[in-house]
Amino acid sequence: MLAAVIGLCAGVFGSLNNALIQTAADPACPGRVTSVVMLTMVGIAPLGYPLVGAAIGAWCAAPVFGACGIFASLGVAIALASNAVRHAELPQPRARRDRLSNPTAAQ
User: Fold this and answer.
1) Whole-angstrom Cα distance, residue 73 to residue 40?
2) What is the pLDDT along the chain (107 residues), one digit of tens a residue?
C-alpha cells in the first residue's frame, strides 16, 4: 500500500514539476530545459549508488534506507518552505483567463 502511495505521489510530482519548469522556460529551448531536468533527476542518481552500497556494507540496509528516507523528507520540507514552490501556478488557458478577468462579458 505504501509503495502505491509513493508511486502516485511521484507521478503527480513529476507531471507538475515538468509542467511548471516548461512554462517558466524560454519557449525557444524546451529540449535543452528537458535535458537538464532529466540529467539532474535521473542522470545523477547512479553516482550515489556506490555510496549507498558502501553504507549498506558498513551499517546494514535498514538504517541506511531510514537515513535516505529522512534525507528525502528533508528535501520535501525545504521545498515546501520555499515561497516560490508554494505559490507556483500553471498559466490558465486563454478562454478561462478571459472569463475570470471579465465575468460580466460571458453573460
Assistant:
1) 18
2) 888 988 898 888 888 888 889 988 898 998 999 999 999 888 998 999 999 999 999 999 999 999 998 998 898 899 889 998 888 888 877 766 666 666 665 55
User: Which amino acid belongs to residue 37?
Assistant: V
- Residues 56, 40 contacting (CB under 8 angstroms): no
Q: Do residues 34 and 19 make contact, with C-beta atoms less than 8 angstroms apart?
A: no
Spatial contact of 91 and 23, defined as CB atoms under 8 Å apart = yes
C-alpha cell recorded at residue 80: 515546501
Report the candidate in 35, 37, 36 with the shortest Cα–Cα distance to residue 15.
37
- Grid coordinates representing 95 are 478562454
